[in-house]
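Collaborator request log, item 7. Partner lab (contact: R.S.) asked for a structural prediction of Putative selenium metabolism protein, YedE family to inform their binding assays.
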Amino acid sequence: MDKSKWLILSTGLLIGAIAVTLVKLGNPPNMGFCIACFERDIAGALGLHRAAAVQYIRPEIIGIILGAMLTSLFAGEFKSRGGSATLVRFIMGMFMMIGALVFLGCPLRDVLRMAGGDYNAVVGLLGFVFGVGAGVWFLRRGFNLGRTQESHSQFGGYIMPLVFVFLLFLLLKGTVFNPDAGGPLFFSKEGPGSMVAPLFISLAAGLLVGFLAQRTRLCLSGGIRDFILIRDSYLLLGFIGIFLGALVFNIGFGFFKAGFAGQPIAHSMHIWNFLGLFLVGLTATLLGGCPLRQLVLSGEGDTDAATVVVGMIVGAAICHNFMLAAAAAKPAAAGVAAVAGGPGIYGQIACVVGIIIMAVIGWTFREE
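Returned to partner:
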């Protein structure tokens, strides 16, 4: 392998190790990093949904955006750009989140779940690969959302990073504007939202991942896309590294547990594990990047990617307000019946509708 491939493999190994270390320090099991779940938590913290178990401003997301911004500035790669099918991208971001919360995780968490021994995540990966393959089918037929244009002012590119700097300020200060009703920030007292690594360690981890992901262009959907189109394995090596790094640390910390049942924050409704990440893979390919890549691009000044991120946050609120998100399976406990988990009928319908809408977008946005 050449030097660049060793670099992205090493980057993946480090990110996998960081993710499991964050779990050791308090983050939810198999969720050291999850772009979709953490954006969902941010939506809850801002009161956009009231699912009490998933509310927290995740410093990791703030760190990734700011890390990508600072790195791109030093590298001379920060450019304010956008203007390509903005509303369409917003809607696509919403459906990418719906697919992720039907599965219960983004592609990054899927790899981390596999590294923890979760076989349900293998089913999800198959769906993701087929979804990317479907997206490549549309790309080969001329799919294009339109040309992105560089802005004459750089200020637009700073808006998304500044928004997250403000969220960091709110997180650090903890201001309560309405003592009677609470807020504007809401924090979980139980459930995944209450499981957090120390704030400054999480922020530092996000900054480091933002730096690494910006320099290597890390993207799982892009890796599968490139392998299908031109047999280029560069981006795939990054996620192989994440899997191996997380696997070693999971075994070392005693977190590894192989099987379908009893996996943390997961379910075994395999058709919906497959279709949830199929929708994410299809959408990410049409958008030009997975959820992690959209965060990094938004840090580089790409307002189209920032629109996708906002769409995902709004999509997370819609998922919980309209009962679209899957429930995690839970074993029976004293006086409490077992919960099978998985998405309800509304989530199932939304997932299928999302696949249909993405197919329509893929077909209609073709260059003749």
